[in-house]
Backbone:
């Protein structure tokens, strides 16, 4: 599965199926029902920390999320990966906490904690027994105000292992990384969230401490709590815990602008893999443009469910691919890419699939989608949106993401925005953005994985070294 | 399958948060009603009226352990083929109807059971249930659709060859259980067997195992119990009869010594799976081992394996251990990834930790910490409809009883340091294990203490 935005996690995911879940949960935040934000209590503390609290009494649990408006977008050439490394170091100790003590305390209180970094922001969260929300509140305040990580070198080594697992040994991710780098020349979306390997290796503790000082201030953070509690009481707890934390220097704004793309770009990756794959990205606007709703509908028409155009054509009819996807995240801080990607069946040639996909994209430009397709896409968005509210964690994610972009209140406008989209709008945005000169195509050329011989292990104890060709 | 589809099925489950922890779910705060349908299926309902949505999950005795010898992968292909149209609807027409409602329907084969399920808005729950029931009672199972799904399964097997963790799991499974065991293969099967499966194999498997006697249906959401029961009685009446229970296979046992299998791949990291035979879910020692494993390698950052291998030595991003306790005796395994050159060091640390928890009692602090987490985190298992539905299935599948939520804290609280050490001594085998290493072997140069090449 190819991903538009790769959140990097501190904690390992044991199965790749989980990775798909992540893509869904964080890549696509469904909108909330109109008026969902009416029940939100919002305050700004004296130190400019924003606090959003929403009571939800469905189950005896609560979640605390802290969003820091810092991600790989804020980084510089030669120190890429620092945002994600700092996220790891946040678990490695404070003035009063030993390394990993943070997680141990959360777990002892019947909770789970984690964090992830994106290009735009970093989110730390706990999901916990409702009786113990005060615990993560005080711990999060501690690591915002009194960051003092231990074991810098071993944590950096862990991140290097993470990059090996996530990218080096994952051909799909390596292809996304290359394509993204080719699509962005001037804007920091050029480099991967986890950072280039050589940059990670050269990061220092001083880099990390400076970064924390600038970006981990109350003025640059949003605290969101959702769950089975008394909202006023939780606001009071948060105010007491965070109220006295002082701000560091003002974070410098990110002002880079990607120049318009003039002409198709191609990137080829030769990598250890079994099956060919390709991905393509078109530069598109983000939430700031009303076109973002029509682009959202376009992505659903192309790849929303098994009745979608790409699944129907490439998986069911032509039977050329193992998997196909189109995705778009309108909530990125700066304009992002509209992605389409496919992993090919054995024996299928990449240009043949690209040509089928091209025809499908051209059809979006040449003809309006049918009323039935438009209504189906809207129904899917509305249903997803209700399903999203089944989880307090996803509710907190939605509120935090919209607040980072300006105001959590704009969440209420989402379904209206979707509802207003017409077939003509979808055709218009396809004509404007989904054109060849605006796209970058990445092609994966598999070099093989050193194949296993046919007999394989046979149930007993065996010891065999498989000889294979040198493929890289 | 698109992200949207996959996401809708499992997206609301915080797998990424829960994945690190071996756990048993429980309720307590949720009310479960249990009844038996006229055709023999057990129905569990939890009414949840906060949101206008419904989730249904069903389990049939048609998991991959039922694959006939030489037809490994058949349960998976059958499950995948079922939602590809009905007697009256082509796959295309069926998909269109499901997507138009924003609903989802899925059938999948696990090791023990095949599961079928749906999620929908309340206003479409009757229509979605009708489609799901039709898929189960009157599937089309046309040759062309089955052959298409077979080709997809073969392509997915090729794709999986890119994932070192898949290769390691597949070979570990085969080595530990042996090809004759119902647990000796992954549900997707192998290229050799899947390529020979026929549409008739699929239709026969369906008729044999998709029966309601012994099946379990779990419903969570904005429903009225009486209504949903009546709907299910009516919609599923085509599925009669029962499935004969399968004989319990012998527990897997590793011969004395350390058995190393190396698989050479062009990779930056070694993926290591080290393990031996484990227990079945009904084993009374399950709970002691849950506490023991939390301390050893199941408890994320509170576990010894993460502390030593990751936090102290910086060798791995991911390391964990667990018992796979299901219907029949399963496995215990430690899984980790580390750069090729660190493979030996990581294995050494794992084995040291297995020895240590056998030889020395765990500390009071470790024991208390494990118990507090296992008991205190219970409510996190039923914070959304999909987890409530799957929890109810587990309770019924493994006969945990509707009072499981009340019993669980007491069982865990009673576990002592002696229990933990006794469990470690009885069920961990640091001197007799299988180690599968997918790595760049010339860089990794893996050896184990008593490594003797037996070509």
Residues:
């Amino acid at each position: 599965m190819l991903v538009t935005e790769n959140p990097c996690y501190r904690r390992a995911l044991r199965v790749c199926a989980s990775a798909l879940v992540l893509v869904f949960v964080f890549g696509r935040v469904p909108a909330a029902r109109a008026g969902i934000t009416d029940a939100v209590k919002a305050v700004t503390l004296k130190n400019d920390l924003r606090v959003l609290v929403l009571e939800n009494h469905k189950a005896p649990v609560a979640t605390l999320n802290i969003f820091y408006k810092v991600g790989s977008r804020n980084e510089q050439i030669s120190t890429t990966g620092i945002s994600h490394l700092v996220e790891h170091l946040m678990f490695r100790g404070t003035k009063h906490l030993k390394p990993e003590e943070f997680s141990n305390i959360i777990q002892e209180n019947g909770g789970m904690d984690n964090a992830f970094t994106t290009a735009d922001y970093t989110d730390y969260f706990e999901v916990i027994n409702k009786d113990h929300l005060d615990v993560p509140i005080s711990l999060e305040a501690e690591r915002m105000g009194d960051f003092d990580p231990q074991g810098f070198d071993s944590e950096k080594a862990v991140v290097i292992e993470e990059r090996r697992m996530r990218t080096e040994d994952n051909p799909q991710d390596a292809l996304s990384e290359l394509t993204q780098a080719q699509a962005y020349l001037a804007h920091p979306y050029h480099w991967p969230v986890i950072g280039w390997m050589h940059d990670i290796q050269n990061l220092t503790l001083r880099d990390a401490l400076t970064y924390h000082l600038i970006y981990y201030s109350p003025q640059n953070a949003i605290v969101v709590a959702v769950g089975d509690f008394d909202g006023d009481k939780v606001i009071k707890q948060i105010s007491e815990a965070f109220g006295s934390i002082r701000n560091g220097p003002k974070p410098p704004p990110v002002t880079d602008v990607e120049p318009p793309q003039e002409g198709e770009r191609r990137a080829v990756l030769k990598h250890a893999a079994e099956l060919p794959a390709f991905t393509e990205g078109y530069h598109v606007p983000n939430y700031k443009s009303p076109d973002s709703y029509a682009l959202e509908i376009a992505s659903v028409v192309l790849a929303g469910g098994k009745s979608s155009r790409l699944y129907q054509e490439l998986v069911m009819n032509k039977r050329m691919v193992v998997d196909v996807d189109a995705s778009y995240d309108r909530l990125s801080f700066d304009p992002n890419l509209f992605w389409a990607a496919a992993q090919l069946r054995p024996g299928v040639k990449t240009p043949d699939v690209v040509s089928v996909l091209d025809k499908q994209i051209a059809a979006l430009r040449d003809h309006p989608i049918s009323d039935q397709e438009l209504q189906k896409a809207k129904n899917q968005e509305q249903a997803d949106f209700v399903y999203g509210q089944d989880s307090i964690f996803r509710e907190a994610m939605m509120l935090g993401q919209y607040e980072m972009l300006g105001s959590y209140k704009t969440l209420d406008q989402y379904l209206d925005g979707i509802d207003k989209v017409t077939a003509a709008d979808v055709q218009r945005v396809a004509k404007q953005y989904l054109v060849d000169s605006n796209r970058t195509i990445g092609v994966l050329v598999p070099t093989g994985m050193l194949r296993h011989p046919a007999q394989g292990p046979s149930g007993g104890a065996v010891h065999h070294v498989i000889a294979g060709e040198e493929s890289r | 399958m698109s992200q949207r589809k996959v996401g809708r099925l499992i997206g609301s489950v915080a797998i990424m948060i829960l994945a690190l922890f071996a756990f048993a779910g429980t309720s307590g705060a949720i009310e479960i009603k249990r009844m038996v349908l006229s055709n023999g299926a057990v129905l569990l309902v939890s009414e949840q009226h906060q949101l206008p949505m419904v989730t249904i999950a069903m389990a049939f005795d048609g998991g991959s352990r039922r694959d006939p010898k030489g037809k490994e992968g058949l349960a998976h292909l059958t499950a995948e083929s079922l939602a590809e149209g009905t007697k009256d609807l082509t796959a295309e027409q069926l998909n269109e109807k499901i997507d138009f409602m924003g609903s989802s329907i899925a059938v999948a084969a696990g090791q023990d059971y095949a599961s079928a399920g749906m999620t929908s808005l309340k206003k479409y729950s009757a229509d979605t249930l009708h489609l799901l029931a039709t898929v189960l009672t009157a599937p089309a199972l046309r040759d062309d659709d089955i052959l298409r799904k077979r080709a997809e399964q073969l392509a997915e097997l090729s794709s999986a060859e890119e994932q070192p963790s898949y290769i390691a799991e597949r070979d570990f499974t085969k080595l530990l259980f042996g090809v004759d065991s119902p647990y000796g293969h992954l549900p997707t099967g192998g290229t050799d067997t899947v390529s020979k499966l026929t549409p008739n194999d699929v239709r026969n498997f369906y008729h044999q195992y998709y029966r309601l006697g012994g099946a379990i249906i779990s419903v969570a959401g904005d429903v009225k119990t009486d209504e949903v029961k009546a709907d299910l009685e009516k919609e599923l009446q085509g599925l009669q009869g029962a499935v004969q229970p399968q004989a319990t296979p012998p527990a897997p046992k590793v011969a004395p010594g350390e058995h190393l299998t190396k698989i050479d791949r062009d990779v930056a990291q070694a993926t290591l799976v080290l393990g031996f035979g484990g227990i079945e879910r009904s084993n009374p020692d399950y709970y002691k081992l849950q506490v023991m494993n939390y301390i050893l390698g199941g408890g994320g950052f509170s576990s010894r394996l993460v502390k030593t291998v990751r936090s102290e030595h910086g060798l791995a991003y991911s390391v964990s251990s667990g018992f796979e306790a299901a219907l029949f005796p399963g496995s215990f395994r430690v899984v980790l990834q580390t750069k090729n050159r660190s493979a030996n060091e990581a294995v050494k640390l794992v084995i040291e930790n297995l020895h240590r928890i056998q030889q020395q009692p765990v500390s009071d602090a470790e024991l208390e910490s494990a118990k507090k987490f296992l008991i205190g985190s219970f409510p996190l298992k039923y914070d959304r409809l999909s987890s409530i539905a799957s929890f109810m299935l587990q309770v019924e599948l493994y006969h945990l009883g509707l009072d499981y939520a009340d019993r669980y804290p007491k069982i865990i609280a009673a576990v002592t340091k002696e229990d933990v050490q006794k469990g470690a001594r009885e069920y961990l085998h640091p001197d007799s294990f299988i180690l599968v290493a997918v790595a760049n072997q010339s860089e990794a140069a893996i050896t184990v203490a008593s490594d003797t090449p037996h070509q």
User: Anything to note?
Assistant: The domain at 31-235 of chain B is CATH 3.30.830.10 (Cytochrome Bc1 Complex; Chain A, domain 1). Chain B touches chain A through 118 residues (CB under 8 Å). The longest strand of chain B covers residues 269-277.
